[in-house]
């Protein structure tokens, strides 16, 4: 059974990005995999910003990355880039901290003008950390995410593509060749 770590990089307690991360964790768990959700905002700030990898909570979080077969990076978009909180955490990982892992970069934001933040800012970091396979990134507009009575709702324009990206990610976890993941055969 493969294990997945969802890493949410939002500083907000009421984050839609964090809710999407939890939604993905539930979908992955429903497919028979182990899924855990790491909220970077809950790590001790002094240790995180001071790069104290010996601090127990930081060492445990880094260990969870090392143990996972796959990683989902969920970040809000700020000033056309992924969150500084996520960057601070990723900077603590070893040089090849994603080696052998499938990675799904996912971002939320207020405008499609920020969609390239994933490909131009986050994806290069994923590759530099040695990911075995970075699946197609996904960007969700904030207006497509709502929470009513503590229930997450994703607009149909984003719900189906999100489900497709999650499916691509789970196939990548299973080692399905990239051409098959994209719906083609080699």
TrEMBL record:
Superkingdom field:
Bacteria
GO molecular function (one):
FMN reductase [NAD(P)H] activity
Which Pfam families does the record associate with it? Answer: FMN_red (PF03358)
Q: Report the InterPro entries cross-referenced here.
A: Flavoprotein-like_sf (IPR029039), FMN_Rdtase-like_dom (IPR005025), NAD(P)H-dep_FMN_reductase (IPR051814), NADPH-dep_FMN_reduc_SsuE (IPR020048)
Record-level GO BP terms: alkanesulfonate catabolic process
Occurrences of domain NADPH-dependent FMN reductase-like (ranges) = 4-142
What PANTHER family is this protein classified in?
FMN REDUCTASE (NADPH)
Record-linked NCBIfam families = FMN_reduc_SsuE
Q: Which protein, by its recorded name, is this?
A: FMN reductase
Organism in which the protein naturally occurs: Saccharopolyspora shandongensis
């Amino acid at each position: 059974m493969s294990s997945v770590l969802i890493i949410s990089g939002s500083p907000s307690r009421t984050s839609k990005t964090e809710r999407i991360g939890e939604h993905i964790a539930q979908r992955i768990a429903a497919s028979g995999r182990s899924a855990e959700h790491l909220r970077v905002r809950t790590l001790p700030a002094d240790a995180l910003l001071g790069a104290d990898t010996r601090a127990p909570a930081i060492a445990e979080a880094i260990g969870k990355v090392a143990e996972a077969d796959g990683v989902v990076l969920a970040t809000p978009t700020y000033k056309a880039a992924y969150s500084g909180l996520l960057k601070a955490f990723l900077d603590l990982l070893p040089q090849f901290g994603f080696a052998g892992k499938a990675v799904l970069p996912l971002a939320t934001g207020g405008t499609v003008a920020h969609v390239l933040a994933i490909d131009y800012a986050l994806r290069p970091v994923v590759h530099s950390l040695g990911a075995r396979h970075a699946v197609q990134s996904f960007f969700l507009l904030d207006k497509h995410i709502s929470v009513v009575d503590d229930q997450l709702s994703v607009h149909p324009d984003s719900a189906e593509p999100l489900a497709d990206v999650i499916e691509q990610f789970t196939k990548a976890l299973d080692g399905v060749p990239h051409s098959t993941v994209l719906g083609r055969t080699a």
